[in-house]
Each structure stands twice: as C-alpha cells, then as structure tokens.
Amino acid sequence: MNAEEPILQEQAVSSRFAVPQAELDKQIEYTAMVETVLQSRFPDKKPLAFVHTYGCQGNVADGEKIKGILVSLGYDLTEEIDDADLVLYNTCAIREHAQDRVFGNVGKRKAWKEADRSRILALCGCMMQQTYVADKIKKSYPYVDLVFGTHVIHKLPEFIYRCLCTGKRVFDLSGGDGNVVEGLPIHRDGTFKAWLPIMYGCNNFCSYCVVPYVRGRERSRDFDAVVEEARRLIAAGYKEITLLGQNVNSYNKDKDASLRFPALLRAINDIEGDFWIRFMTSHPRDCTKELLDTMASCKKVAKHLHLPVQSGNDRVLQEMNRHYDREKYLSLIAYAKEKMPDLSITSDIIVGFPGETAEEFEDTLSLVKQVRFTSLFTFIFSPRPGTKAAAMSDPFDRAEKNRRFKALTDLQESIAGARTASMKGKVFRVLVEESTKDGLLSGRTEGNVIIVFPGDEALIGSFQNVEVTEPKTWILKGRLC
Fold this sequence. Notes:
Radius of gyration: 23 Å
CATH superfamily of the largest domain: tm_1862 like domain
C-alpha cells in the first residue's frame, strides 16, 4: 500500500518563492484535460507510468511528487518498464557516473519508443537543468518527448497534455531562484518511512558542486506547513520522518530564532506519537551548539549526525570553499560527543580533490582516526562542468587516487569492525525495515546501523528490541528480546 496525498492544496508559503495561485489553478485544469484524453485513448484500462529516480534523497522526494501527479492524471504505476506507456527518468548531476547511466538507459528506450510513437519518454531533474545536457538530449536523442528542470515539477500536467495533444517535443528548463510549491500530490514509496523536504537549493557554492546551479538558491518551506505535514505523516502511522535539505542547518536562517531549524526539530518532537526524526544533510558551517543541544534534549530525534567533512586538510577545505577548518570541525564533534556520548556520526569524504598532495591526504586519514566515524560515504573527485574545481590543475593520476581511496576505505573498515565488536551483547531498539533473501528481518538502529535477525514479516514497520549476538564489519546479527 502506498500513501497518496491530495493535489494542489493551498497552504501558507513565503510570497518571495510562492507560485501564484493562478498558475496552480491552471495546472488543475490541465489535470482534468489530461484525464479526459487518457480515458479516450485507454477506454478499457489505465495507462501505465514507469518512474526511475537517480541520486540523493531530495531527488527521491521529488520522484514521489512526480508519481503523485501522474496518478492524479490517470496513470497507474508499474515496475515493468517495457509495459509502460510513459517512462520518466528523474536524473542526478552530482557525479559523471550517474549521468553516464542516464544516457545509457535513454539509449535503450529507442526501440521501445519506435514500437509505439504514442508512448512518452521524459527526462527531468538536476541533470536536465544543465544547458549542455539538455542540448545533447535535443540533438542526439530525438525520440525523447519531454525534458524539464528542477523548478517546474508542478507544471507536469501541462507538459503531459502538450505531449499528448500536439505531438511536439516539450523542453522547459526555467531557472531563476526556484519555487516553493505546497500541496502537490505525493505517492510515497513506503508506508512507515517518509522523506519530508523542508527547504530547497543551496547558497554555499562549494567549488566541486553543481547543486546551486541546478537547484537554485536556498529557500525554506513555511514552518507551519512542515510541522503540519509531519503531523499528518505521524497520524498515518509513519515511524521515521527524515527532514531533507541540501543544508538543513540553514533552514529559515534569515528568520527569527523561533522559526529556525532547532525550533523545527523541537516542534516536530512535541507531536504525540512513537517515531524517530532524522535529518540530512548538515553542513559544518552552520552546525551550532544550539542544534546539538536540541538533538540531545529531544527524545524522538535520532542520535545520528551526518556531518560531511570532505577533507581533513585546511588548504583543501579552503579550495573546496567549505567555510570551516579542521579545528572547527573537530570542536563540533567533541561538543556533540560530550552532549551525546552514544552519538553515531557519519560523513562524506572526497578523495583526490585537484591538487591534494599525499601529505594533505594524510591529514584526512588522521581526522578519520580521531573521529572514528560509524561509516563514511567516500568518493573519488568527479569534475562537474561549470564548477570552479573542474578548471583546477590536477597533477595526480587516477591510479594514485585509487590507492588513496583504498587506504581510506581500509581504515574505515577497521574502525567500523572495532565499533561493531563493542556492540556485542547490547540491546538496541530498531525499526524493522524489510526481509532479506535469507529469510531474516533487517532493521536499523537509532544510530543508523543495520541489524539482521530471525522474526516474522508482520514485524516490518514496527519498533523492536534486538540483542546483538554476532557483530560483523558493517552489519550486526541479533535476536529479538
């Protein structure tokens, strides 16, 4: 069962980023028009839509809105791509590999499209917000019908209508500062874990990152609208709410303190119910003692902090335009551990940033040894066209970067192994998420560590206490208490 939420409800939102109500009303009209067209073309069944999302949790949340809109238009969703009457790829631009996968999959759709020209092939998301990518799609993939960017998801009814009724290709890469649109329909992928975006865009302009260019500048959702959405999710039985933003710490940073991120955490924490609150991603630049104090004092806020450091060397951090140094990062970690001794800390690290020397990389290894992260998301630098870092000179070859990458992952594996070994015999509260191929249940602790254990599938979606019986490097084995 998937939760679906109603279409285009009018809610309070900052007028600076609000889409005019007249525009939303127009999309409601297009929704009715598309429904009529689809009913005439598919009189005996509903047409099928296949949606695939690449990339981060923010993209996944966008994908849920896209699915919600398609369902409101009269489509049923399918996981079988060859059966679909509409295929939509929601793309990611963070790394080159992700873009290559999109181009490869679009190429595979050529025969599918040629078999039935009435089918719709659509591309959207961050990758499409880059002009050179959109131009490539327009010139090299003429069978792609619809391309739109990150700021105009709410116009999907209009786009689909134009594709259905004109036979012409539709490209809309409108940019600007972006929009905040409340009340779009949502078809959630899960029934007990939910993504809840609280803001969009980014103002940080890290030198390696395309997000400010493809997602626009920072804009925050209305405080009360976020709390109300959280309230609805909890009332519907969701057990884990993850607040999303490129930098959640800067939510409403230009507003009164009573409307900033720590206050939002406290407001959601005060909602009656048994649930966990998670959030990502935090930027060290805006991570404050108030935020850490709030985490410590709120029982429903999971004691897990994802705080990307990217590098342990000050010169590299400066070249990355990260706006903090090693000392500040380590002081935040020390304060967080003082307030929350059992806090689980995870991070992102880029290996092989242009010009990073062997000695500077050693600073990253020493920071990892000092912090002892629960886990790391590690990446070899991927140049993104249009960013400052893409133009930087880089004397080190891929083989050297691969050696450094292995040194980092080997170090983190040893730290993770020691950490999980210390958990043997302890009991953890877990949210049961799924069953495994081996017939076990898989759950996740408050600290975001996976435990597998025997149990009935009826427990999926519930909190259970599990004792660790056998620690592995990355996961734990346990038994129900």
